[in-house]
Amino acid sequence: MAQGESMTRDINRDVRTKNKTLNQWEQFFNKHSLASYPTHIQFPTGTRCNLKCRFCTEREGAAGEAYGYKDLSYEEFLSTVRLPGWNQALHSISTIALYGWGEPLFNPDYSRIFDYLAEHYPWLGISISTNGVLFDKSWSERFMSLTNADINVSINAATGGTYKWLMGNDQFDRVVNNMRILGELRRASKERSPTVTFSYVVTTANIRELPQFIDLAADLNVDTVVVQDIMSLSEEAMRLSLANQPYLARQMFAAASARAKARRTRLSFVSFETHSENYFPTTAEAGNFDACPDSGSYAATESPVPSPYRLQTDCFDPWERFMIRVDGEVFPCCRYQSHGDCSLGNIFRQSFQEIWDGAPYQTLRRGVNSPHPPPVCAICPRKSGLD
Question: Is residue 245 part of a domain?
Answer without folding.
Answer: yes
